Amino acid sequence: MKTKYIFLTGGVLSSVGKGVMAAALGRLLKERGYKVAIQKLDPYINVDPGTMSPYQHGEVYVLDDGAETDLDLGHYERFIDTSLNQVCNVTTGQVYEEVITKERRGDYLGGTIQVIPHITNEIKRRIGLVSKTTGAEIVLVEVGGTVGDIESLPFLEALRQMHNDAGHENCFYIHVTWLPHIGATGELKTKPTQHSVRELRSIGISPNMIVARSDYPVAEELRDKIALFCDVEKRAVIPLVTADTVYEIPVTLEEISVGELVMEYLGLQGRQKPNWQPWKEMLTKMRQDKTEVKIALVGKYVELHDAYMSVREALQHAGIEVGVDVTIKWVHSSDLEKTDTLDVLETVDGILVPGGFGERGTEGKIAAIQYARENRIPYLGLCLGMQLMVVEFARKILQDDRVNSTEFNRQTAHPVIDLMPDQRDITDMGGTMRLGLYPCKLQPGTIAAKAYGTDFVQERHRHRFELNNAYRDTLEEAGMRFSGLSPDNRLVEIAEFSDHPFMLGTQFHPEFLSRPYRAHPLFVAFIEAVQNYAEKK
Ligand code: GLN
Fold first, then answer.
1. Which H/E stretch holds residue 385?
2. Looking at the chain, which residues constitute the CATH 3.40.50.880 domain(s)?
3. What is the pTM of this model?
């Protein structure tokens, strides 16, 4: 079978859920027995989001192969439950880097290098790599940003050319737009959608489907109007009202026959009947009345919840599995550095410190960790959250407040967290951390080993610093257990306390491997401890 392509563009506004739409549609097709992969084309010039501030970009999502990618890849993996690879996130930076490298090498000797065809060819080559490297039969390609942006033009031109290259019968174009609501008249407006489709047509792309996102129910007349003005079949005008959970979307799309429609357009037959049973059970469990548990998420970017997207999802998955309603209390780490501010932690049933970089707020995170340790509140530390758990404990046992990570104080008297040896000569910041899947063996009888129920796991990483092995014995004698180690014993992957109900930190990021109805074992163990703590309280 020739590879089938589904292209998703956005209109009117960004952040209307194009990524979730792609992810959900991917699931619909996977449910019909097809091998699916999803790619994101990001028009910015950075090579990857790894060096961008989470304030600009939200979370950096890490794949098995170590690619640092857009957070939409997290939605994709969570929905289609397939591990994607580095070709699934393309940026303008990568495309130009490749073309310019070839030009310098002399590959185009004699030629003038231009956006069309050189840049667009490189974009198309990268779109082609998805099926080649993943074996996907259907490839969904989402273009970041909104039609009308200058930066996305080469990507849209490449998508237009794909229509001929891949064959008209193998391409399906979806435009995801937003219907604004006018409060004074209580109306939804289609005009921006019409304009956006016109803009898309002027580039040469005629959408086969329009997904009209809105916060309010969309009346039939509006669907008629969009169909008429945008020249799309009415049944292909899909109103998509904001749901209370993104996990509702695949089921909604299935109910309004979006899967059938896309299959019909692409000339595909379903190979199996979709089985939404497990997915629906998950939704039912999610909506059941459950006891609420409160987790303080102590971070430096908490104003922007997207910065902790996968952590938030992983907590939710674990809550569904354990049968509790997890509410996140977003705590700004810098706030905890002021006096008398720790009382915000009094009402919570668990504390989580996620990954992070840079000194700002670290002392606040350490204060939260100390509070968790002394008050025996369940604690989960992810990456930096594990490193600071070690710093906090070492300060106590060495009775020295100068203990630190060399990330925050190069000259510290006690560098309990230090740069990994192979990081010392690295000067480039982009893509040079210890990234992606690495193995970890678990020590029998520990909390970690019990949670996983196995003695060997592979988890995704993104860090430069590590626990300094010179302090291992001291920490161990004082009660810290190293329950996860790299197979050569050189690197501490998991640390936990034996005399605390649940205080555990991981050097890796378990949140990236949590799936809607396959919650991550460590998150489940944490939420179970949180539930116990809440009950006793
Ligand atoms: N900044 C720390 C390091 O580089 C932690 C990284 C993280 O939390 N992802 O090791």
1. helix 384-398
2. 289-536
3. 0.96
Q: What is the 3-state secondary structure (H, E, C) of 258-278?
A: HHHHHHHHCCCCCCCCCCCHH
HSE toward the beta carbon, residue 464, CA cutoff 13 A: 20
pLDDT 10s per residue in the chain (537 long)?
A: 899 999 999 999 888 899 999 999 999 999 999 999 999 999 999 999 999 988 888 999 999 999 999 999 999 999 999 999 999 999 999 999 999 999 999 999 999 999 999 999 999 999 999 999 999 999 999 999 999 999 999 999 999 999 999 999 999 999 999 999 999 998 999 999 999 999 999 999 999 999 999 999 999 999 999 999 999 999 999 999 999 999 999 999 999 999 999 999 999 999 999 999 999 999 999 999 999 999 999 999 999 999 999 999 999 999 999 999 999 999 999 999 988 888 999 999 999 999 999 999 999 999 999 999 999 999 999 999 999 999 999 999 999 999 999 999 999 999 999 999 999 999 989 999 999 999 999 999 999 999 999 999 999 999 999 999 999 999 999 999 999 999 999 999 999 999 999 999 999 999 999 999 899 999 999 999 999 999 998
Question: Which residue, judged by its Cα, is nearest atom 9 of ligand 1?
Answer: 355
* Torsion angle in degrees (nearest 10) through CA of 385, 388, 393, 398: 170
Rg of the Cα atoms in the chain: 25
Mutate to test the pocket of ligand 1, among 366, 390, 407 (most ligand atoms within 8 A of CB): 407
Residue identified by tokens 């393309």 is 90
Q: What is the number of alpha carbons within 13 Å of residue 432 lying toward its C-beta?
A: 12
What tokens were used for 311?
A: 């952590």
Q: Which of 517, 26, 15 is nearest to 253 (CA)?
A: 26
Report the C-alpha gap between 222 and 194 in whole angstroms. Answer: 12
Q: What is the topology classification, in CATH, of domain 4-280?
A: Rossmann fold (3.40.50)
Using an 8 Å Cβ cutoff, are 29 and 61 in contact? no
Where, residue-wise, is CATH 3.40.50.300 in the chain? 4-280
Phi, psi of 300, deg, nearest 5: -100, -15
Nearest to 350 by CA among 503, 536, 510, 522: 503
Atom nearest to 465 CA in ligand 1: 10
Give me the active site residues, please. 383, 509, 511
355 CB near ligand 1 (under 6 Å): yes
Fold of 289-536: Rossmann fold (3.40.50)
Q: Which candidate, 446, 447, 441, places its Cα nearest to that of 528? A: 447
From 366, 380, 382, 463, mutation site for ligand 1 pocket: most ligand atoms within 8 A of C-beta: 463
Query: Using CA atoms, how far apart are residues 406 and 465, in angstroms rounded to an integer?
Result: 8
Does ligand 1 lie within 6 Å of residue 512's CB atom?
no
Structure tokens at 329: 């209390």
